[in-house]
Description:
The protein has helices at residues 11-25, 28-32, 35-40, 59-71, 74-82, 116-135, 159-168, 172-177, 191-198, 218-235, 240-243, 251-257, 280-290, 292-311, 318-332, 350-362, 394-400, 426-443, 461-479, 487-509, 518-530; strands at residues 42-45, 48-51, 109-110, 113-114, 148-152, 182-186, 206-211, 244-248, 264-266, 337-342, 380-383, 405-408. By secondary structure, it is of the alpha/beta class. Strands 6-5-7-8-9 form a five-stranded parallel sheet, with helices on both faces. It has a three-stranded parallel sheet with strand order 11-10-12, with helices on one face. Strands 1-2 form a two-stranded antiparallel sheet. Homodimer. GO terms for molecular function: carbohydrate derivative binding; glucose-6-phosphate isomerase activity; monosaccharide binding.
Amino acid sequence: MASTSLICDTQPWKDLKAHTEDIKKTHLRDLMNDKERCESMMVEFDGMFLDYSRQCATLETIDKLYKLAEAASLKQQINRMYSGEHINSTENRSVLHVALRAPRDAVINSDGKNVVPDVWNVLDKIKDFSEKVRNGSWVGATGKPLKDVIAIGIGGSFLGPLFVHAALQTDPEAVEFAKGRQLRFLANVDPIDVARNIAGLNPETTLVVVVSKTFTTAETMLNARTLREWISSALGPSAVAKHMVAVSTNLTLVEKFGIDPNNAFAFWDWVGGRYSVCSAVGVLPLSLQYGFSIVEKFLKGASSIDEHFRSAPFEKNIPVLLGLLSVWNVSFLGYPARAILPYSQALEKFAPHIQQVSMESNGKGVSIDGVPLPYEAGEIDFGEPGTNGQHSFYQLIHQGRVIPCDFIGIVKSQQPVYLKGEVVSNHDELMSNFFAQPDALAYGKTAEQLLKENVSQHLIPHKLLASYEHRVTVEGFVWGINSFDQWGVELGKSLATQVRKQLNASRTKSEPVEGFNFSTTTLLTRYLQASSDIPAEPPTLLPRI
Length: 545
Ligand SMILES: O=P(O)(O)OC[C@H]1O[C@](O)(CO)[C@@H](O)[C@@H]1O
């Protein structure tokens, strides 16, 4: 395609538009009776089993979607990503999170340089450091082992690591490695989050990891200063060297903050924040909690999907199929939302993480060349683990609106329970719901007959993660947008800077609120008035719980 042309001007897009009318006349119940169709809508790779037969699509739809992919040069776009081209053109950067989990001997170039050795240097450094902390050869300022970790970070410097931590918390092997240790995440600038994080912790035995790609994010830096004060007021300023380390691409600012660059773990501008869980962003805190060997397994799983995404033909390529179906649902069937429904409590933080990966990536109104899009891109992602969601928002999906759902099932529970006298194990009970709900949605009242279907096979978080990352990429490539920048978010940040300046000026010099619209001026003024009697407290006076 020419650089300013849009995918909606291509014949495959127009064909799909026309085809939508036929599909709308078809009931999913009838589509589900076509065994041949259903069989061809099941794909398996390395322990993952995808069944997309409950999508409102026929084999003809899928064929037309492949043609759309061709028109969007999807294969070439994927190749460009893997070969380190600057596909994040607005920021003039490669997009190479796949290099973070590549095997040691892989070659992945960015700007003519193989980045894999750099990746492994950092991984080796993390392995070494986390082992020292875990075995007590790296101790705190008073000689005590550091058994608790607070990771400070927000957005991509928080959600991915939190998702993996939540998934590992009940994994029997990981639990053994984590004995006697705690990992907490401090994200919100709300002082309540600080209070909750330090509750019950002793600075003497706490290691703080400041995680920020830019090392400029206002919330993270204030939280970092707050915990620096918490440590130095208790143990003296020199204790910071033993109790604070950093993960960042900006090592200059790390040093300026007062963290020894030797205790900083680097990553690179070719890693987007929301794609950074496999960099030191996730690997460091998780290795401190569970040991590097557990985290390495995670990287290997993601790498397996990376290879699959790069090389599998589209009809067997799980992220490509997921991406094309999402485009179909959003841009052709007009369904703006998507529910992510893992039937696994261990995946409780998966939907919030994917929310950022997907919505910050593809929530765009212009094409990569700056042309306003005459079609919707991105979707509203939300979700909860089953069965909890069933008792919350499922009713609307059953009878209110059509919302495409990702049902994610796990074959083996991390913590199997089978009570004597019960008909099924607790996990079977969970999975009964997993099998029932998609059919209840597809068929209405005939769900009972379909409970016997075996939809899912073994599924593990690292593969799930990489598959979803690549799905977002596929959608972005087809929609012709840049999935790797986030200018909307940047606008919010600069407006917050203006507000911060105003609050400071009003509080310290009684300057009136100016330069904002009527509504914001009113609200700011009222806020300043109502909070004027709150005394300034040094961070050391934060409540100790
Ligand atoms: O890691 P940093 O630089 O602190 O940024 C945190 C988050 O802020 C954003 O830039 C915008 O919210 C995200 O993309 C990023 O994950």
